[in-house]
Amino acid sequence: MLKTNISDRWLNDEPANLMTLALDVIESLYGLAARDKSEVMLFALEQELATHFAEHLAQQSKPIAASDLLAALYGPLGFAGDWERFFSIDNCLIDKVLTRRRGIPVTLAIVVLHLCERFDIRGEGISFPGHFLLRVFSRNESNGESSDIIDPFTGKVLTRRDIDLLLRGARGNLATIKPKHLDAAEPFEVLTRLLNVTKGSFIHHQQFAQALMCSELLLKLNPECPFERRDRGFLYEQLDCNQLAADDFEFFIEQCPEDPVSDVLKAQILALNLVPKTLH
């Protein structure tokens, strides 16, 4: 059961703000106080950057460039990818990322995109296979616009070869970059990716109740997804909610009868210690 009905707001027609969605996740998992603390830390970070750029902003000669922002964040402000604890839950939660200034590509990207918006820099996320990326735009003297693709894990600009190697690492040596791989990601697409990696981290650390909350949030976004219902079933099973697990497994079997996993789930249902249903 979700602690709040925050995810119900995701179903309205208002434009979605990416940082707001990430903070919604924190509130759903840990309550309003955790969200409030996150917002205080976010404001403090904005003020720290404003102080860093105070002289530049006072001159009003030209706006803050994406390269300036990235140099500050990944330099004096100390943001970096967490190589040593990549699968830590702390790297998936925005409040912890703001506190530790460490994260994984998707969470660091959310922070960078929020600050791009704060300093009037155009940026967008790219839901690249296996490794979330950023695209940032720069204005040039002829009033044109150029862009660079950034690895939010390092803050570095990527070459086409770098991107090709990332794709091969995720999809195999025969994979080739297609335009869709570099399309801008909509906020709810980024949110889905964030929830999936967060759920995976909770499962990795055997925190199944929190993983279940992530699964519930994902089903708010896509209620009829059979694969998420299947995953939720496995989480219910871990939490000894056998009837709920069976219901989700049966939904998957009905929706995906040809999937090889369906045969496994049929045996799984038989193995569950279910209380017989009372007939009226």
N- to C-terminal distance: 28 Å
What class would the helix/strand composition place it in? alpha+beta
CATH class of the largest domain: Alpha Beta
Report the sheet with the most strands, covering strand number, pairing sense and barrel closure: 4 strands, antiparallel
| Strand order in the sheet with the most strands | 3-4-5-6
Total domain count? 2
* Mean pLDDT metric: 91
The counted number of beta strands is: 6
Shape: globular
Number of helices: 12
pLDDT below 50 for ≥5 consecutive residues: which ranges?
none
Overall helicity: 40-55%
- Based on the coordinates given, report the CATH architecture of the largest domain: Roll
Report the order of strands and helices. Answer: HHHHEHEHEEEEHHHHHH
Predict the CATH topology of the largest domain: C8orf32 fold
Q: Work out the strand percent.
A: 5-15%
- Give the radius of gyration: 21 Å
Task: Walk me through what this model shows.
The mean pLDDT is 91. The chain has helices spanning 18-30, 32-52, 54-59, 66-73, 94-100, 105-118, 160-171, 187-204, 208-221, 226-238, 242-255, 260-271, and strands spanning 80-81, 102-103, 123-126, 133-139, 145-151, 156-157. The protein is an alpha+beta fold and 280 residues long. The radius of gyration is 21 Å and the shape is globular. It has two domains: 6-182, C8orf32 fold; 224-280, no CATH class.
